[in-house]
Write a structure and sequence with these properties.
By secondary structure, the chain is of the alpha+beta class. The protein contains 11 helices and 9 strands. β3 and β4 form a beta hairpin.
């Protein structure tokens, strides 16, 4: 029985020290923590995520806005280890994967990698594997030790009862021997009685000594197990403290690396901005020089040297608007020729050819009175030619040429 208790305690300590492994729920919780931090750093406007406390990625997705629903597709495209792999992990392995290895994927933007510090902090606070059952194992160990002590007490009571029974049997046996040998002499009876008493004392003391030694051994074993359990708890606590310190150091190193990356990125953007500003200044200087040259060239050209354009016009209506304008001469409609250098103002005169003159003289008042003026607008078909004495002026407004000053004409 004592050997069984001892082996049970040893096995429980070994099992407690070797029990490890990340569960499916713990892996999902760590993945959810990582996804939340990833989305928070992807979009600076996603501060509403800080108020969420999801347990699963599916719970997180139900609370996302449109922008984060698009961003989480990047996160979900990255595969993570299967259960047959992470079930063999310790907490350190879980922290290393989600805090470091996961962020090395090329699909994760550089500005999101600052989330690693937040992920390590939250996963570091989780109870994973053996840590989750540590207090239960410690309680079980102490309960087993208490049971062992109870067993020892029970054995001690059995020893006392056995001693009492042995003494009574010895006295009864001595009495029977005296009655059966009553016929012997007094000296022999006295001698045998003395021998019997001596043997009774020896038989009484011998089992007591053996049971006392067994009890002492049990007490020593129980005390050793209790000391071992206490030292195991203290050692585990020291390891936790050491691990926390290492995690803090790693977090500080990661934060320094992130700050270095941000600084390099900002420096690079500053250099790009400075280069663009220099290029803009250079282009502005080129534009200014070109404008100066163009102004000088324009000022050197006299109005007479500027290129002109000829437009052929029909008659003007009662609102002094020419009803038709063509870029080439049209025998059926063209009566006036307008010359312009800027496309806005121009001077017009009657076209000097027989066809245009005949067209104008067919109805001189209707065709000429809104654009021309003459002392003898009413002729008796004796006129064969129209001569422009002073060209008229027209301007281009709202897509039409309008008479501003009528032309002076004569009939011949």
């Amino acid at each position: 029985m004592k050997l069984r208790i001892f082996l049970s305690l040893i096995v429980s300590v070994v099992v407690a020290s070797s029990a490890w492994g990340v569960t499916r729920e713990e892996m999902e919780q760590a993945r959810t923590i990582t996804a939340q931090a990833f989305l928070r750093y992807m979009n600076n406007g996603s501060d509403y995520l800080d108020k969420l406390d999801p347990v699963k990625v599916s719970d997180l997705k139900n609370s996302l806005k449109t922008k984060e629903k698009e961003n989480i597709k990047i996160f979900e495209s990255i595969e993570y280890p299967k259960i047959e792999v992470y079930s063999q992990w310790s907490k350190d392995d879980l922290l290393k994967y989600w805090g470091t290895d996961f962020w090395n994927d090329s699909r994760i933007p550089a500005h999101c990698k600052g989330a690693r510090v937040r992920v390590k902090s939250k996963i570091g606070a989780m109870n994973v594997g053996a840590e989750a059952i540590k207090s239960q194992e410690t309680t079980a160990t102490l309960a087993e030790a208490d049971n062992a002590a109870s067993e020892a007490q029970r054995v001690l009571d059995s020893i006392k009862m056995a001693d009492s029974i042995a003494a009574e049997e010895a006295i009864l046996e001595a009495s029977n021997d005296v009655v059966q040998e009553d016929f012997a002499s007094d000296s022999i009876a006295a001698e045998e009685s003395a021998i019997e008493e001596e043997e009774t004392v020896k038989s009484k003391n011998s089992p007591t000594l053996i049971y006392s030694l067994i009890l002492i051994v049990l007490v020593v074993i129980i005390a050793a197990l209790i000391v071992y359990a206490v030292k195991g708890i203290q050692k585990s606590g020291k390891q936790d403290v050491k691990r926390d310190k290492n995690d803090e150091i790693d977090s500080a190193d990661e934060e320094d690396d992130d700050n270095h990356i941000y600084k390099e990125t900002l420096d690079e953007k500053d250099r790009e901005i400075a280069s663009l500003k220099a290029e803009i200044d250079r282009l502005n200087n080129v534009i200014l020089r070109m404008n100066d040259r163009l102004s000088d060239a324009i000022s050197e050209i006299s109005p007479n040297q500027r290129p002109t354009r000829t437009i052929y016009l029909a008659y003007a209506n009662s609102k002094n608007v020419f009803v038709r304008a063509d870029s080439v001469y049209n025998e059926d409609y063209s009566i006036f020729k307008l010359v312009t250098s800027d496309g806005i103002t121009g001077s017009f005169s009657v076209i000097d050819n027989p066809i245009a003159n005949k067209l104008a003289l067919s109805l001189p008042i209707s065709i000429l009175k809104n654009s021309c003026q003459s002392e003898d607008m009413h002729h008796d078909n004796w006129c064969k030619q129209i001569i422009t004495e002073n060209a008229g002026t027209a301007i281009f407004e709202n897509g039409r040429w309008i008479v501003k000053r009528k032309a002076d004409i004569n009939f011949q």
